[in-house]
């Protein structure tokens, strides 16, 4: 079953410099249940949404973190401006 935050708002911040693109998505919803968040941290599996986001960020050579509690969820990601193509395809990111 897919779970949704229930948040009425979302904040999205994007910043970049010569080396890195930073993206942060934050909502004010219910948060991710602790057992789901722990499983995600241990295995990378927490459902289609987070797993897909992490996979796409990784394909571009980046990293994704997940912070969540009863006041919402924060997803910061960092992606290098020049990423090597991944095994999954010819993904690359350049300014």
Key features of this structure:
five-stranded antiparallel sheet; 2 helices; globular; 95 residues
Summarize the structure.
This protein is α+β, with helices and mostly antiparallel strands and 95 residues long. It has two helices and five strands; from the N terminus they run ββααβββ. The N and C termini lie far apart (38 Å).
What ranges have pLDDT less than 50 throughout 5 or more consecutive residues? 85-95
Specify the biggest β-sheet. 5 strands, antiparallel
In DSSP terms (H or I, runs of 4 or more residues), the helix count works out at 2
Instruction: Report the strand count.
Output: 5
Amount of helix: 10-25%
Distance between the termini: 38 Å
Gross morphology: globular
Question: Could you give the order of the helices and strands?
Answer: EEHHEEE
Name the quaternary structure: single chain
Relative strand content: 25-35%
In round numbers, the mean pLDDT is: 79
SSE-based structural type: alpha+beta
Alpha carbon gyration radius: 14 Å
Overview of this protein structure:
The protein is built from two helices and five strands. By secondary structure, the chain is of the alpha+beta class. The chain has a domain of 55 residues. Strands 1, 2, 3, 4 and 5 form a five-stranded antiparallel β-sheet that branches. Strand 4 and strand 5 form a beta hairpin. The relative contact order is 0.22.
